[in-house]
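Readers of this paper often ask what the protein records in our data store actually look like. An entry from our holdings is shown next, in its original layout:
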Amino acid sequence: MRIFCAIRHSNDPSFYYGGLWSGNFYPALRQLGHEIIESKVDLLPTSRFMHIPSKFTDQELAVRAEITQRIIDEVRAAHEQEPIDLFLSYFYNSHFDSAGFEELRVLAIPSVNFYCNSIYQFENVAGIAAKADYSWHPEKDARELYLRVGAHPVWVQMGADSNVYRPLPDVPREASACFVGQRYADRDRWLAALDRAKVPFDIYGSGWNDASVIGDAEVARRDAFYLGREHYRPGSFASYAHVVRENVARNGQIGGLLRTAKQWNYRRETRRLAPYVFAHAKGRAESVAATLAAYDVCLNLSNVWSDGRPGSKLIPHVRLRDFEAPMCRSCYLTGHTAEIAEFYEIGKEIDAYRSQDELVEKTRFYLAHPDAAEELREAGYRRAVRDHTWKHRFKELFRKIGLS
């Protein structure tokens, strides 16, 4: 097939997953024999407000309209040269005017929009989902959210590239655990429990020390306004006032103030725990595969905020690392979800925890029992390579939407 792809949120890979999804999708599609026609339109101007679900400013709408038209023009030009068989995108509402999907239908090109934050940030894609031919969501429980807006959801989980995430037997392992990922939600709470229990571990990723943050804050440091919308410097009085106003608008006067109080208390606890977890921070992992190979136990912390904002319910969430780490032949310990148990045999291929005590207990167990850790590594690796590559996922996706 000839597949037109618009999945990079920036042409610069240092911004907004500029190379993450192309790095995952393109090798698998090419291995399956498909031709990729990549959009050259830079989505960065619209990625800078992709956290906004609706009620865009006039300037934001104008930029989105321009980008939408340029992408449609690219598709038309490529389609005239040789028919396009599929339009594959990773759009938030900010990236693309959903009316553009009607123009694709006129060209008889089916569309699939991928989105991997459906459980906790669905509102950011609801408009796009309602108009694309198919909405590809990795989270099984997101189906009802898509159906409510009139979308056609297709559940296909994420995967990993076995050429990138692979065993590195020459890398010596430390008798320690590691976590690779940014600071988010309650991750510091779980890691603080390991610190209190004197379990050895290291942390790799952004936000665990004074490393810079990306996204809205990157814009806020440069511009007070961007495309007609005010941005707030993190930690400023104006940013806190904005959060209070937003909470009240969403939850009413009493509910909004209660939400603000909950966020404030959570932030205080985060600051209290910071010294205990920051002491384990090692900076960014230059190679995830090499980092995972260097530790006896590899951890994953699965919780996300249920509505994408601090103070809401924490819920477990299957993530890319659930497939990447076992494919690296790691002794892998992750947060328990009903969904992850559909992809691995828990306790034999990977292991999972439900509480801080269980996280501590199981991490200690695998560090103290290298034979058990080795059995988990081998079984998890074999399962991941057999069933959980991106090639498997695309075959499943194309089968479910009726494309050979």
Remarks:
- The mean pLDDT is 92.
- The two ends are 9 Å apart (CA to CA).
